Amino acid sequence: MFKSLKGKTAIVTGASKGIGRGIAGRLGEAGLNVLVVSRTIADAEAVAREIGPNASPFAADVSGPEGCAAMAEAALSRYGGIDILCANAGIFPSAKLGEMTPADFDHVIRTNLTSTFLSVSAVLPAMRNSRWGRIVLTSSITGPITGFAGWSHYGASKAGQLGFMRSAALELAPWNITINAVMPGNIWTEGMEGNGDGYVEAMEASIPMKRLGDVRDIANAALFFASEEAGYVTGQTLVVDGGQVLPETLSAMD
Ligand code: NAP
Question: Whose CA is nearest to atom 36 of ligand 1?
Fold first, then answer.
């Protein structure tokens, strides 16, 4: 269906676990060189091994400019270019208003939103140089569409990514660089384990497809945005949630 992306180079942030691991694996299967980025090198190494010789690990904290610059330099020196950035790294600690400190708020915004700006900025010179680029953000339904008690900072960061994306799309279009966002619903990942007892069951009950998503559901959407064929799509979102945002009430699914 798609022209081959074989031989192109992708950076996937937050690729040692969950959705990022799924995206990195899917791009690896499609024959891309993949830089597997997370803060924990041992985890990134394990995922790179799982993908094969076209993948390699890199340890970077994408919430700071140094980490993002180092990750871009590593991709350039190992593979000679950067064609695709999947800005996926993110955290979702819970804190209700009244308990949430300014430091909690800043930490989530910096990790999820500032990192989007920093990682995009770090890959831009290489993409501009080749006049070709695909940037895929992992946003969420939480924030842009729905809310969840305890995640006001998280929701702000995920909605913020979309605001960033729309203006960035205008700036990048003349360079043949697209930027789009996948908006996952509830996807089973390691990060979910911190959400407490009963979370998964409650979510499954509110999803029309009655199951959490798989990381491959998100990876397939990311692969579409990364493809040559998606080259005229920019500044757009794709909700991948098993229909979760559709029902007005639980009884709407009866
Ligand atoms: P996860 O299983 O907890 O994995 C998070 C990944 O991000 C790990 O590889 C982690 O590795 C990395 N990471 C965290 N902070 C980082 C930093 N400062 N610098 C570099 N890497 C960092 O999470 P997930 O569920 O796959 O979520 C991935 C993305 O999808 C997030 O942006 C999240 O908001 C979004 N999302 C998830 C869901 C869901 O249902 N799971 C739904 C909607 C949106 P290290 O800790 O080793 O750095």
Answer: 140
User: Per-residue pLDDT for 196 more than 80?
Assistant: no
Give the pair of three-digit tokens for residue 166: 């729309």
* Mean local confidence (pLDDT), 126-131: 98
CA distance 192 to 190: 5
What span, in angstroms and rounded, lies between the C-alpha atoms of 39 and 110?
Answer: 15
Q: Which residue has the tokens 């992708």?
A: 10
Angle value at C-alpha 29, between 77 and 32, nearest 5 degrees: 25
Distance (Å) from CA 191 to ligand 1 centroid: 7
Ligand 1 pocket, CB under 6 A: 13-20, 38-40, 43, 61-63, 88-92, 111-112, 138, 140, 184, 186-187, 189-192
At 12-34, the pLDDT tens digits run 999 999 999 999 999 999 999 99
* 48-56 mean pLDDT: 98
Written as six digits, the tokens of 26 are: 């899917």
CA-proximal residue: ligand 1, atom 48 (nearest): 39
Judge whether residue 192 has pLDDT over 90: no
Which segments within 104-147 are labelled E, that is strand?
A: 133-138
pLDDT tops 70 at residue 1: no
Q: Distance between CA 163 and CA 48 in Å, rounded?
A: 32
> Given ligand 1 and candidates 11, 43, 92, 158, which is best to mutate, with the most ligand atoms within 8 Å of its CB?
92
Q: What is the mean pLDDT of the chain?
A: 96
